[in-house]
From TrEMBL:
Keywords: ATP-binding, Kinase, Nucleotide-binding, Transferase. This is PfkB domain protein. Residues 17-310 form the Carbohydrate kinase PfkB domain. SUPFAM superfamilies: Ribokinase-like. CDD domains: bac_FRK. PANTHER family: HEXOKINASE FAMILY MEMBER, PSEUDOURIDINE KINASE-RELATED. GO terms for molecular function: ATP binding; kinase activity.
Amino acid sequence: MGRAGDAGGGVMTAPLLVVGEALVDIVGHGRSKNGAKATPGGSPANVAVGLARLGVPTELVTRFGTDAYGDQLGAHLFGNGVQLAPGSVDPGFRTSTATATLDAAGVATYEFDISWEPPKLTLNRGCPAVHTGSIATVLEPGAAAIRDFLAGLADRPVTVTLDPNARPTITPDAESTWSAVRALAGLSDLVKLSDEDCEFLRPGSSLPEVAAELLTADRTRCVVITRGGEGAIGITRTGQVEVTAPAIEVVDTVGAGDSFMSALLAGLNARGLLGETRLQGLDEEALREVLDYAVKAAAITCTRHGADPPTAAEHPSPWNA
């Protein structure tokens, strides 16, 4: 499914940059692998595809091989209009996989076979935002490269967004993982978490309490927390907004959070809040609008199998109507 329309709407002279893993999801029901299906995935790659489908020019810095899974990934990314940064396709690299097991409600749990070391990270002039997160931000040696890259963006006219997308099977120590998240959040303008992330990383803390911890960093201006079928909340230093999710029949939740992130970035871009503005002007009205757009994108994804984010034709932008 290719791109359709232009939900981006913002002014940019270079693609939005996404940094992180691209892998193949092997999705099955229960313990049996009979009938398991291999589909392109990886949270950052899903975000890149979601952005491109919504009409936002997007470049992905990742690494995968030229094996059968890598060919599948490449065809998927190119077919959806995602640009790949130099070095992202490496003939000497074995493409990573994630085995996703769905329960009776369609909720996925994951086991990973992954290694991560990105190619050289550079920022193109005019890039409106850098997004990263998930395994790429905790798995060495690539995680160190991302930390150094984000630290070097402190004085650059670009918005940085982070989705930790906690994976307890990879980082079971919640305390050390939270410390790593805090460090990256301090280099980011916006942090997106799920309620499940919060439960794992800060057990016993309320969602506003988790957000308040992150907002103590000088750079961080907004924390967004998704709550599955209940919607999402957005918290800044000056206020909090809440949006509800539409009632749907869930097929599975694979990629829903990534679709949310893509639409959130597309909405912020359309509102002119990325780039050198770094979310200045993100008032409660604008935050509510972009959260509503993002929640509805995630809901569309939940109505179909796998990480299949909507196009702009399926999910028109209210800012370009």
